[in-house]
Amino acid sequence: GGEVTSAEIWEIFQDEYLPAASADDKWGQFELASTRTQSDMSGTVALHTELRVGEQVVSTDTTGNGPIAAFLNVLTEQGVDVKLYDYVEHALSGGGDALAAAYVELNVNGVRLWGVGIDADISTASLKAVVSAVNRAVREESGDRELASV
Fold first, then answer.
1. Class for domain 6-142, per CATH?
2. What is the number of helices (H) and of strands (E) in the chain?
């Protein structure tokens, strides 16, 4: 037995949902390298992404009714069957240098799970959350590692 410390919980959370800081510890098929969005008054968002898929970087331009919808189109082009079920965001701190956390619930290739993204830019945090969920699904499908359970 024994009590789990907050540091241990944070370490497990980071390992399960967030990209590793060290290249040796990275997992997942996808990694967001860069993004750029542009919107107009019609509600359409144009999204440019550079996405690492395995060992190659794929540069894409697509549109959607928001950054997440546009990014789901990018993943569909990469052969990922993905549907959005839920999205939540909040600030992790106050002030001009605050970080945002975004959480998405997706169905990825028939597996329903959550992803988490953290960034100073809420749109980037949202896309990182999508990548987190997709990588968790790919990891589960490949058998590389079971999803964390409580």
1. alpha beta
2. 3, 6
